[in-house]
Design goal:
Deoxyribonuclease I, Chain A; 244 residues; 4 helices; alpha+beta; 7-stranded mixed β-sheet
């Protein structure tokens, strides 16, 4: 049997739980309990104003004894802190690219972050966090352009086999999700109706996704939306893949 690969995506909400308490260790414990081969993490901060002494990346690295790579998207807290994405893995990793997504001037800059994971079967992990619904005019087009940009880079640079992880801030039926389904195998199709967060208008929606590229490269063996919504305002999502 081929080695299986467990992939996780998790918007950690600055390690602030739904009880409004920042606790990086609680977040790290949940990630360790899920025990993925790789975890794409969103809303990762260094020196957030609610925990100004905490370098979340360093704390995770030292506490978990895992490799953790950080992709900064923006400065926060008047330049005293940093905000972005991270990839955590028990396997050796190296950064491949950090690429900015298309967003209008004056809107929060967004990125996708690419690493290569030296697991028994090497693969790439891409983590991203798209603009939220209603953030700017015609943002649906922005998310579509973002997933197109990611896919073009993966294809043209041969960054595959690959797993895309992220808070895509969009849901079934939107142009971005239709494109994602055209080009990638979307693990969430195993459980499409379970929400992973609450978006604007107090609407529970599934917006946290895991997908694999190229299509038909992997068989999905298990897909899980973890029930916890205390540690973060998003549910952790995991998928177990086996190469075909």
């Amino acid at each position: 049997m081929s080695p299986r690969i467990k992939v996780m995506t998790y918007n950690i909400h600055f390690t602030i739980g739904s009880d409004d308490r920042p606790d990086w260790k609680r977040t790290a414990d949940l990630i360790r309990a899920e025990n993925p081969d790789v975890a794409g993490l969103e809303e990762v901060t260094i020196r957030h104003h609610r925990s100004p002494e905490v370098d979340t990346v360093k704390e995770f690295r030292n506490y978990l004894h895992w490799n953790v790579l950080f992709g900064k998207a923006i400065d926060i807290c008047d330049g005293k802190g940093e905000y972005g994405l991270a990839v955590a893995s028990k396997h050796p990793m190296k950064e491949v690219a950090k690429i900015y997504l298309p967003t209008p001037d004056g809107i929060e800059e967004r990125i996708f972050f690419v690493v290569k994971v030296s697991a028994p079967i090497p693969f790439y992990c891409i983590v991203t966090h798209f603009s939220w619904t209603g953030e700017y005019e015609n943002d649906d087009r922005g998310r579509l352009d973002s997933i197109r940009l990611i896919t073009e880079n993966v294809r043209n640079n041969r960054w595959f086999p690959a797993f895309l992880t992220g808070d895509l801030n969009t849901f079934t039926g939107t142009p971005a999700l239709r494109f994602l389904h055209d080009e990638w195998d979307v693990a969430n199709d195993a459980e499409p109706d379970t929400p992973t967060a609450v978006i604007s208008g107090n609407r529970p929606k599934q917006i946290d996704f895991i997908a694999s590229y190229p299509k038909n490269a992997f068989a999905l063996r298990k897909f899980t939306i973890h029930p916890d919504r205390l540690v973060s305002d998003h549910n952790p999502v995991t998928a177990v893949f086996e190469p075909k």
